[in-house]
Amino acid sequence: MSTAAEKRTRAPQPDDRTGHPGHAGHSLGVDRLSVRFRLPDATVTAVTDATFTLSAGECLALVGESGCGKSVLASALLGLLPGNAEIRGRALLDNDLDLLSCGERVLANRIRGRQIGLVPQSPAAHLTPVRTVGAQLRETTSVLGTAGGDARAAARRYAGRARLGEQHLDRYPHQLSGGLAQRAATALALAGDPWLLLADEPTTGLDRPLVDATMDELARLRDAGHAILLITHDLAAARRVADRVAVMYASRIVEIAPTAELFDRPRHPYTAALLDALPERAFRPLPGFPPELTRLPDGCAFAARCPRVDRRCDTLPPSTPTPDGEVACHHPQGG
Ligand SMILES: Nc1ncnc2c1ncn2[C@@H]1O[C@H](COP(=O)(O)OP(=O)(O)OP(=O)(O)O)[C@@H](O)[C@H]1O
Ligand code: NI
């Protein structure tokens, strides 16, 4: 599948002001990634056959209801799942290194922080309360080997890339506003020069102006050449920054499409239902609940809530190509 990044006319540019490195050429190719958790009395099917690509300079949003498997997917890529997780599939970095099989040592020494940065859900969880932001940045750049012998200059550099003014480096996290704390946490995520940023619900609990500001910061990092995997419930936020959107339902990606296309012409009935629930649209929440991930049906998991359900839905709908994406439905809307 061709990517939005290939289609975008504005190529990713290094940011001259901050000396932001270009990351052109990097890619992540996830192929049938599946995760199950074995529990004593049940098996949780958290992710099933997730397949997508993501290139430097592109933002992919992963959206779907709570519990559908978004965070488990992200944790699998970082090797952060607990021991009871059974992982299958591949996740190739630069068509080369498989994140799912390379092992903890490689992940710890070469990947986490250095190739893949984590933009945290809550800055508070990422920042140490008892040390200044500058001290934390200096330490992180030293540990990750990006300080280049001058940790102070490095701290200023990464603060600059996250648009955190130098004057804030001597402050403790609690002395920063919510927006500045988010930038400080982002500066830490950038401190190892990762090209790929994972942002799992980076705006939970923020008010709308701060959500928008955070999305605009992510868009800026995308434009500076980073790849961004944005996990969110917030379709409006996704629309603001994502080039493509992947919609997840009950462990599967059921539709993936360029953002404008997805909003204008949703093909999967679940995507249409998510859009109908938006305040600026019909504001009609989808009735019912997703199935338990311990008892998924053999056929389409959305059938029980689907307005277009028919006999074919007893069998699993295969993922089929659309002009610019894919949909897994026996009777997609709009052709
Ligand atoms: N260690 C684990 N053992 C068993 N089940 C787990 C484990 N971690 C996650 N799960 C289950 O996997 C499913 C997917 O969880 P996940 O956190 O990925 O959902 P999510 O889409 O990120 O939801 P939210 O939007 O609420 O963050 C859930 O049913 C969850 O309970
Ligand atoms: Ni989550």
TrEMBL record:
Residues 1-19 have a biased composition (Basic and acidic residues). Keywords: ATP-binding, Cell membrane, Ion transport, Membrane, Nickel, Nickel transport, Nucleotide-binding, Translocase, Transport. Residues 30-275 form the ABC transporter domain. It comes from Micromonospora sonneratiae. The lineage of its organism: Bacteria, Bacillati, Actinomycetota, Actinomycetes, Micromonosporales. PROSITE patterns: ABC_TRANSPORTER_2. Its main location: membrane. This is Nickel import system ATP-binding protein NikD. PANTHER family: NICKEL ABC TRANSPORTER, ATP-BINDING PROTEIN, OLIGOPEPTIDE TRANSPORT ATP-BINDING PROTEIN APPD.
